[in-house]
Structures are given as C-alpha cells and as structure tokens.
Amino acid sequence: MIIQEVIDLIEEFAPLNYAEGFDNVGLLVGDNSTKVSGALITLDTLEATVDEAIDKNCNLIISFHPIIFSGLKKLTGRDYVERTVLKAIKNDIAIYAIHTALDNQHKGVNDMICEKIGLKNRQILIPRKDSIKKLTTFIPTEEAEKVREALFSAGAGSIGNYDNCSFNITGKGSFMGNEDSNPVVGEKGKVHYEEETQIGITYPAHLESPILKMLFKAHPYEEVAYEIHSLENKNQHLGMGMIGELEKVVDEKSFLEQLKSTFNTGCVRHSKLLDKPIKKVAVLGGSGAFAINNAKSAGADIFVSADFKYHDFYKAEEKLVLADIGHYESEQFTKNLLYSFLSKKISSFALILADTNTNPIHYL
C-alpha cells in the first residue's frame, strides 16, 4: 500500500472535515505516493518517536497530536518541533495527524474514555452544528427508486441509527428544451409535462462531493435539477465530549480513586466534593475547560477532562465535581483505538503501537 491508501482508510473512520478550524490535521510530512514499509501509531510525534520508527522499519507515523500546529517559517533545529520534522525528513518518514477529527468522531476519543470508565447510554456532550445538509432533487417517477438507491449507496440518508432515510413527493414537472438541448423525454422546442418524484434527503457535509457525483451519474436527465441547503440541526453523532451513566451509583471518592487507577495517573486534581452520589458522568479528552458549562447544563454529577486552570475550578459552583486526570492520561488509549480500526483493514505491512512514552508531565 502507498501512504495515500492508508490515509483514505483513516479518513473513512475520521474524515478531516470533522476537525476543528484551528487544528492542523492530515499529512504533515512526506510524499503520499510513497510505498509503506510499516506504520507506527502514537499519541505524539517527537524525536524519540521518529527514532522508534527508524528502529522498527516504519516509514509512516500515524499520530494523534500534530507535531506541526502553527506555521513553520524556518527549519533550523532550534526547538523540539523543528528537530523532529528535520529528523523525519532526513530519514524519509512521513507523519500524519488526526487530532480533533477523531475527537469529534462518535466512536472516537471520548467514546474510548467512556468505555474505560464503563458508561452506558452515551451521547455527544456538544453536538456539532453546520455539519448536515439537505439535497432536494426531481426525478421521473419510474426512475426515482434507482436514483434514491444510488444516493443511499454514496452515504446520503443516514440519520443517527437509521439509514436509507428520505421523503418523497409525487407531482408534475414541466420543461422545454432549446435548440441545443437533447432531452431524454419530450421534444426540444415543446413544453413537456412529466410525472416526477421530488426526493428530499439529508447527508453529512463532508460527503457532498461523492453524493453529487452519484446524483449526476444516476439521474436520467441531461440537466439535473437539484437544491442544496445547510441545516441548523445539531448532529447528535458528531461533536466534542460525551456524557453517559454508570451501571451503579458510586460515592465521589470511590469514583476518583477508580479514575486514578484506570488512567494510571499520578494525581487527580478535583474541585470541592459535594457529598453526592456519582451516576451521570461527562468526559472530554484533552483540554476541556471550555465544556464545563455544557457538562453542568447536561446534569452531569462529575466532569472528567484535563488542563483545568486555577479559576476553572471555581466554575463548578458546587453543581458538579470537576476532575482533571491529565492531558496525556485522558488520551492515552487513542493509539489503541486507531490500531484496532486499521488492523482490521490492513494486512500488507506491519502496524506497530509505539512504546515511546511521550507524556511530558511527571509526578513526584
């Protein structure tokens, strides 16, 4: 396989369109036409990670965090970012990063945290806006089923746990082709009336291109009449954070102790304990202070995340407990998630989980 084929598989799972606007995702270093000898899957890409890739004959690093986040104006090796990129280039090692595209995936980073904690009835904490579009098109009724099935095959018509969703109205369409037209039905220069079916179908915004290609391929008319609208609906299967419920109610200290053990962290920083049972748990991998109010609004008993600052803990306002388990710790299982997905798709070269511990924080 070449690198682009691996990228296509990754983005089948977590399309780059899912990523936040501030992020830097995708192929950061390397040539996408290069044949892959092996892929090292890691949370972070550092010099030590590149060294491990060299030792294990991997010319592709699949990283959660992007080593290049803001622009690089020079490559002189003056800091750890430039040194890492230079070493990768010198050794013909490509670097690909997925980051917030996987954060926003329904079965991504936060679902993995929920799995480790043992949460059921999981839902997205902050559903994504502006990610659903609606296509309306008009087809001769006798051809409607064929076109509808073609659109379904391209990914249109999926709503949450349901597929093949559409709304159909039968009516009479009219048109008149000019002298340059080549109408499939009717005659040029004459008004023609045709029994047509109006199909309304929603789709994820990132699939617009293949869906329109399929529409033009399957539609019988020379000129395809269609409309596209962006919907305000929130996408309940795409977004930041998750919230779920424990199988059984536990007390606060027991839950915090379990967090410390499960995520193997040297410290769990938390807000004031409220002497209330823990049942409903909100989670967000990485820096999650921006979602504190969302966790409160969702009725969470505790919000598990990382990188809370001093004043962030005041925002708990005795309505829930804030638990900071550490940035690395909250995302440490992400590489296992990527490995599990890719190992079911790839058998032509070695997929290797990185051994290098990239956690920059240590505890006494």
TrEMBL record:
A molecular-function term among this protein's GO annotations: metal ion binding
Any single Gene Ontology cellular-component annotation: cytoplasm
Keywords assigned: Metal-binding
Keyword Iron-sulfur: no
Coiled coil, from the record: none
Xref: InterPro entries: DUF34/NIF3 (IPR002678), DUF34/NIF3_bac (IPR017221), DUF34/NIF3_sf (IPR036069), N-reg_PII/ATP_PRibTrfase_C (IPR015867)
Chain sites annotated for binding a divalent metal cation: 65, 103, 327, 331
SUPFAM superfamilies in the record: NIF3 (NGG1p interacting factor 3)-like
PANTHER family according to UniProt: GTP CYCLOHYDROLASE 1 TYPE 2 HOMOLOG, NGG1 INTERACTING FACTOR 3
Family: Belongs to the GTP cyclohydrolase I type 2/NIF3 family.
Subunit structure: Homohexamer.
Protein name: GTP cyclohydrolase 1 type 2 homolog
Organism annotation: Christiangramia lutea
